[in-house]
Amino acid sequence: MRPALLSLAIALVPTCATVRAGAPVSFHTDVAAVLSRAGCNSGPCHGNLNGKGGFKLSLRGFDPDADYVTLTRDMLARRTDPVRPTESLLLKKATGQVSHEGGVRFGPSGTEYAILRDWIAGGCRPDPVGTPRLVSLVVSPPSRVLIEPEDRVKLTATARYSDGSVRDVTGLVAFETNNIGVAKVLPTGEVIREQVGELVVLVRYLDLQVPVRLAFLPNRPVPDLASEPVHNEIDRLVYAQLGQLRLKPSALATDAVFLRRAYLDACGITPTAAEARRFLADIAPDKRVRLIDDLLARPEFASYWAQKWSDLLRNEEKSLDHKGVQVFHRWIKGWLAEDKPLTEFAREILAARGSTYVNPAANFYRAVRDPYQRAESVAQVFLGLRVSCAKCHNHPFDRWTQDDYHRFVALFGRIDYRVLENGRRDKFDKHEFVGEQLVLATHDGELAHPRGGDAVPKFLGTTTGSLTGNADRLRALADWVAAPENPFFAKAQANRVWFHLTGRGLVDPNDDFRVSNPPANPALLDHLAAEFARGGYRLKPLVRYIMTSRVYQLASTPNETNATDETHFSRALIQPLEAEQLLDAVSQTLGTPVKFPGYPDGTRAGEVPAPPPAARRGKEAMGPRFLKVFGKPDRLLTCECERSEDGGMMQALQLLTGELVHGLIRAPDNRLSVLLASGKSNSDVLDDLYLSALARYPSEVERVKLLAYTGHAVDRRAAWEDVAWGLVNAKEFLLRR
């Protein structure tokens, strides 16, 4: 407790003491826990920024010392009355004896009431020096799968304190759930099913939180997974979980579906007709592995993954200017093409300084100019942590305290930049920069801690000494992030790659690792992180390892057990094509490139380093406008979540009647023109279009109907334009299956 607050508190309360059941009531471990369990210090109640009814507590009890003073210093309000404890407003409001907007929080015969009454009756004493503090919290069971008719499970919480003592605190913890409709949680810790499904119960006691994953399942047969083919350890770990959940994996995807999926996921493109024809005709048992190896060696692989990293690192023209975007993108792409370790990639970015033209990695600090944004971006991109909630108070759903946040931000307090020139075109836009800049590291200047004084720099989640003096903070940060013993980097990057290849992170959202958001398959995440490390922290070995697993190659077609499963990877998730993938797929299918102003003819959408600045969007060409409509991000956030995948009327109109698509279909030198001029039969033309668009041959029904339509058409070209239009508007074309 801070000395000033402690002195004030002692001066305002009587000096008598009390015991409860032979032991003193502790404010920190008993009273504070009751306030949290009852929800008194929650956001909607007195934990609100402005409090409620003139009474304010720290959010979720992150500052118990301040809460102690709040409860004891205002004797006129009679929140606590040691002379007449039962008349204390703290008790009367919580039990509904007087009007209380928050309603009844507990009854007069409960443990919560007894703890508060005894503490007040004892004089509201602060904890004496040396009072044991909470060290750990264990919840049993840590996870559970319940099969009908089982419909409930009892959770128990055990706390361990600094003196080695152990105590059952089930009656003092707060229970929260992420899926209210599946089950209800009673104050006793009993979880009762309300419907079939899965949920996470977060058990919170003081500043510690423990997640418990529960699944309530129907009494369906246990699938026989012993005969399921296993390609690598990924399959074993996924099958082990599916067996517990009584989920049967879908069948293997067809060659055509796998072919298109692999091209899209590895390189962001679709196969040509010739590539599809060759793969489908191959009868070798290892053809899928060979295809994956070929894709990883293609230049499109580096271009595609450079787009993903450019999204995260906010490589956009308004802050970096056209040249800065180009050099930053070229540097990212070159790093990935050489498949150098991502640990060193992170190290280069975090320690970068100097000219943003000469040292491209320094553009990261040019794009993110505020120390608070820099800290939050680094935590999110490289560590998978969203720490912004801890800026004003302890993180309500994670381990990070306000002190952790500001000490991490202090690492970035000595970064400065110098604008050598700024030839921005919009003189009224202070956020636009055009010209060379320098990123500098200074040796003075500290960020203030909100509770007073300077924030001493320190890494997240470490117990090592703080950085002081003139130490090179950026270099120290870069070394810590890239170190093999870093507890966050490998898991965060492995999870991100898994997300991009399967459509869902093991931790989802993929950059939100927190206590209350546990991984869907912890053993698999640990294994992927270890495999990533074994591969030298390089991207290609991890991508190859995941893509060669049978789990990755499963079909999206569900069976009788997994139709609703979108969490445990028992089937492939159907996803809409990304904006760049879709535009390049349309262009490749119709055999006509899309023009992007400022870039050479033939440049694909997936190769354009950055979208045009928002201020000039009204002058956009058709290609950039199409990308924006289909969700290409402006790169103003350090998050994949900025990329939109939500369909809408504008997307439908772009495909159905849009100028760009219709222009490509009617182009005089497109694929249709070449095919029709080649003298090929209608059947061969149909095969070529289907292979280009869907990586498969038409079914017999499709072949009969479409050949009849085109064969009887008066205008052969117009009929084939209709077929092409139908293909690029088909769900099978628009989705990655």
TrEMBL record:
Coiled coil: none annotated. Keywords: Initiation factor, Protein biosynthesis, Signal. The keyword Transcription does not apply. Residues 476-709 form the DUF1553 domain. GO terms for molecular function: translation initiation factor activity. The keyword Signal applies. PANTHER family: CYCLOINULO-OLIGOSACCHARIDE FRUCTANOTRANSFERASE-RELATED, F-BOX DOMAIN-CONTAINING PROTEIN. This is Translation initiation factor 2. The lineage of its organism: Bacteria, Pseudomonadati, Planctomycetota, Planctomycetia, Gemmatales.
